Amino acid sequence: LFLLFFSTHEELKTLDVDDVFFSTPEDIAARALKPQGGVNFIRTFKKQTEDQAVNLPPNLPELVQNASYMQSPDHLVWRYFYDLKGSAEYPFPGGVFQWARYRINGTGLNETEKIFSESLNKHENTLTLATLRIFSNGLGQPHFHFNANEMGYVISGCGKVGVVASDITANFNIDIGDVIFFPVGSQHYIKSVCDEDLLLILAYSTGSQLETLRMNDYFHKTADHILAQLFFKEQNEFKKIPIP
Length: 244
What we know:
The protein is of the alpha+beta class. About 25% of the residues lie in helices and about 25% in strands. It folds into two domains: about 15-65, no CATH class; about 75-210, Jelly Rolls (Sandwich).
């Protein structure tokens, strides 16, 4: 069972091998493949009534024999593969992140992580992926991303989500199997409300290093006298907010 993400905001267009084959004239396919029997061999192929990408043939063991794959060298594998579950954990108050992403500064990455990071940066429309675990009653605090749309899929647990965009504010509940979407620049938060941890897999539409600003950061990086004017509070009141 795979969970797939595709970096397109348009309708996804896909061509399967069998669809392309049966859309190719018989004589063209015969000249391209040069099989024994020529066109007559090509005519022995029968188009299935059901999509074989979804419905596996009942006699699959008879059709496929000696299926084996050699492991490619690391410099090739890690351009396309990343052990996210086995990667470093990045804790925050209330939970933990694990990341498969590009990093401008590769200091601290092992060799295979560097290969993956550099590979992502070579593709303009690639994705950053992450797993987010929020402990029971924990909070992924309000934040927004400067350079990415974000999608998430709930693997386990349940939670509450809030989104603040330029024209709307929305709050809703999420549960196993739900998908959430946060447009670039929209502030959002996620809170775990079940007895078990809330676990999500997240995808960000950026091949560059993900840029994020959290609420506690922008409060502390805004001068106290500006906050006092904005919120009609005494300037020294904002010293009550601890530095993260």
